[in-house]
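Now read these lines:
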Amino acid sequence: MVRLAVLVFLFLQIIFVTTLSGCSGLPSASDAERHDPRQQQSTEETNVSIENDIVRLDEGEHHPAVQVLLTQAEEARQQGQHQQALSYLDRARQIQPRNSAIFYRQAWLNYQLGELQQVQQLLQRARLFLRASVANFEVLQRRIQTLQFKADAKQGY
């Protein structure tokens, strides 16, 4: 309960500070941080990349309150509390309902739970809201596509 109160307090502080500063844009990644499409990765490297790089999706890309929720979701996921992680992601999606990275994370968790129908729906939404203006567009696009291939393979497509 105390943790929830602290989260609400931080959320309100962040909204207040963001409103006062007139901050409307999101910082973009440097060219060095962007994925070079000319580089080829093996399937094994791609699978390891999805698992290890999932946390990097939220660096500098989200509303501060969403950032907190994504961090909490990742901590819950690492502790095996997948339903709690999905709950944090649902709350993040209420704040940013068109955030492709949130849909991707929900799809990844549902994939781990074996909910392949849900994975397909979430990946469809992730692709729908994915914009080239997102700083990590290439990385997120590659991860969505890779997870789609894995889900399709599990379903026998």
User: Anything to note?
Assistant: The chain has one domain: 41-155. DSSP finds seven helices and no strands in the chain.
